[in-house]
Design a protein that fits this description.
Shape: globular
Largest sheet: 8 strands, mixed
Distance between the termini: 22 Å
Number of strands: 16
Helix content: 25-40%
Number of helices: 9
Structural class: alpha/beta
Strand order of the largest sheet: 4-1-9-12-13-14-15-16
Radius of gyration: 18 Å
Length: about 300
């Protein structure tokens, strides 16, 4: 990896996550009461970039934030975590926001307030193609391809980035991160996702995403492997050599927010460190297990030394 400027370039979303604990979910037109917990920078791409940097990778991110305090907080966080944010653009639109309600039983309910937000403005001029050519790997969050039932204006540019990375010999990863209110994937979204998935080395959906896209496109797989995230049941790695079931790290889960993003970072670190796909899956499971055993999202992501202590 030493010959590359970056180990990993990340493309995708950035937003502010507002967390609150609520006592119940009211009926339509009703009211409930709760406690605001915190407001933190987040987004699947920002989360993955920070988690990967904590594992020792040299990371750059391509995203878009607003000319607002929330956008500045994201840039400040990236800088403090050692993520190169020189490719993070700023636009007049507000930085996206997600409201996270932590309800009875500790379940999370997400309210995405992101349509036409800053990172929806991601376009070809914001993608660092030269840096991608000089990187060991490229990770794409599917939020930059489609969201809210819409194929986004950045989809074609993301596909171009994946193809450039492939042609340059970089290892490519994609998590579809579908944001849909039902499992019925619109055909245009399915087609856009399929085109990108067939370009990448490692396709990294969760079970419901894989099943939903398979209903439209048939079973999709990465060119090297598919890694299906299964929460408390770990993950399944599917490759030319067969299927490997990787158990989750046995922990008491207290907060599952960000688990998938931290798993992705661990898996990517494993692949770039020379592990086979099943070995990288085990590393991803360790990283995700540590994350869910702590309260918080980015604050819960482990460092490389913490992961090494777990084996």
């Amino acid at each position: 990896m030493c010959r590359h400027e970056y180990d990993l370039v990340v493309i995708g979303d950035s937003n502010t996550d507002i967390y609150a604990r609520v006592s119940s979910y009211p009926a339509a037109g009703g009211c409930t009461f709760g406690e605001r917990l915190e407001s933190l920078p987040g987004g699947t791409a920002v989360n993955t970039a920070v988690a990967a940097a904590r594992l020792g990778l040299r990371v750059a991110i391509a995203t878009v934030v607003g000319h607002d305090a929330e956008g500045q907080a994201i840039l400040d966080l990236l800088q403090s975590e050692g993520v190169d944010a020189r490719f993070a653009a700023r636009v007049p639109q507000p930085t996206g926001c997600v409201f996270v309600a932590l309800g009875p039983g500790e379940e999370h309910t997400f309210f995405s307030l992101r349509v036409e937000c800053a990172d929806w403005q991601l376009r070809r001029e914001h993608i660092p193609f030269e840096a991608i050519r000089e990187s060991a790997a490229l990770y794409v969050s599917g939020v930059s391809i489609a969201e809210a039932g819409i194929v986004k204006g950045s989809a074609d540019s993301v596909l171009a980035a994946l193809r450039i990375a492939r042609d340059a010999g970089a290892t490519t990863f994609l998590d579809p991160n579908l944001r849909l209110e039902s499992p019925d994937v619109p055909i245009d979204i399915a087609q856009a996702m399929e085109t990108c998935i067939r370009t990448v080395d490692y396709y990294m959906p969760n079970e419901s995403e894989m099943e939903a896209l398979a209903l439209r496109c048939g079973q999709l797989h990465g060119r090297v492997a598919t890694v299906v995230k299964q929460g408390s049941r770990g993950c399944t790695v599917i490759s030319g050599s067969g299927r490997s079931q990787i158990a989750a790290k046995p922990v008491r889960a207290v907060d599952t927010t960000g688990a998938g993003d931290s798993f992705n970072a661990g898996f990517i670190a494993g692949i770039l460190g020379g592990r086979p796909a099943d070995g990288a899956g085990r590393l991803g499971a360790i990283v995700a297990g540590i994350t869910v055993s702590r309260v918080g999202t980015i604050s819960a992501f482990p460092t490389r030394s913490e992961v090494e202590q777990e084996g």
